[in-house]
Each structure stands twice: as C-alpha cells, then as structure tokens.
C-alpha cells in the first residue's frame, strides 16, 4: 500500500506539466499515422506492414523514454536538488515508485496507440489484422521497454537530461540497424535490440525455440533494476551539488 501511495504521489507531481499530454497526444497521433499507412498501402502484405509498424515503434520508443525520464528527473533536480528523493528513510521505495509510474505511463501509451490503431483499421472493413501476432508483439514491446526505463532512470539521475537523450538517439539508431540484420548468440543480449528481436521472433515463428533466451533476458531486466535501486540507496547526489 505504501508503494501505491508513492506512485500516486508521483503522478500528482505531474499535474501541471506536459507529462500526461505527451502520453496521450503522441499515441493518438501515432495511431492516426499508422492507420493511414496500413490502409493506404493495400497492395502490401499485411504481415509486412505490421512488421514495419512494430519495428518503427521499437525504434521511436527508446528516444521518447529518454526524453520523458530525463525531464521527470530534471523536475526533481530543479525542485530540490534531489533532496525529496534522498532525504527519506526508504529511498529504494521512492525510486521504485517513480520507476513504476514512468513504466505504467509508457505501457498505457503503448496500449492506447495500438488500441486506436486496431479500431481505426477495423472500421475500414477492408484490411485484416493478424491479431495473435500483433498482441504477442505488443506484449514483447511492453516487456522489453522495462530495461530501457531502468537504464534511463540511472543515466538521468547520474548524468542528467543531456546524456539520457543522447543515448536515446543512439538506441534509436541501433534499433534501425537491428531491424535490418539478424543477431545471433551473445549479440541478442544487447538491451537495445530486445524489442526488435522479439518482434522478429514472433513474426517468424521463433518465439518458442528461443524461450530460454527470453527467460534469461527477463531475469537480466529485473537484475538491472535491482542494481540501480541498490546504487541509489547509496548515492550521495551529483558532485556539482556537494
């Protein structure tokens, strides 16, 4: 219950910021563009169009996460130089609640994006959507964004908005690269490639054969968050505030 109250408090902080507007306007705009693309190119195979839209989402998501997380942490920095986060007995819970608020907001936007997309395409009654593959792929995008939120929470706290956005751009470019090549072995454990790899595994029927890899990736994602929470419990703030 304490964690839920902290999550609610984190949302309350965003009432007078563009936070909720960003999480609603961007998916609505994206859904309109997705529907237009899907219906306009009727001669293209539905699976190829779905693959393109999912890859595009996987590419843009890290950049948006880097900006949103960076701005959220900058708000804490400007308000009190992180004292609201650090001068409490349960620092891990404070950061966990902030992570949960950010992650849940991202999931809500992702669900809104593809819900509106499905409704828009369904209203046309001219195109068929591979429902099972789409749902599996969106689920993977949601799960694999977990580690991206965790990493940008760390980079934003430690280094600030600038580095977070720079890495977001880098991750976006990496996703573009990974969408055009197939990774094997240890290369599949690069966090920035997980969303694209998941989409390819789903659409190419390789999800079951790579189950062990995905279980290990889930463990690594939780491990990343645990390490960041442990680091934050001993963090003394940025040196420029000492």
Explain what the structure shows:
This protein has 242 residues and is an all-alpha fold. Helix content is 77%, strand content 0%. The chain is built from nine helices and no strands. Helix 2 runs antiparallel to helix 3, helix 5 runs antiparallel to helix 6 and helix 5 packs across helix 9. It is globular. The two termini are 34 Å apart.
Summarize the structure.
This protein has 242 residues and is mainly α.
Poorly predicted segments? none
Question: Mean of residue pLDDT?
Answer: 90
Coarse morphology: globular
Rounded Rg: 19 Å
Sequence of secondary-structure elements: HHHHHHHHH
Primary descriptors:
242 residues; 0% strand
Mind sketching the topology for me?
Blueprint lengths: L1 H12 L5 H22 L5 H35 L2 H4 L4 H34 L6 H28 L2 H18 L15 H10 L7 H23 L9
Helix pairs in contact: 1-5, 2-3, 2-5, 3-6, 3-7, 3-8, 5-6, 5-9, 6-7, 6-8, 6-9
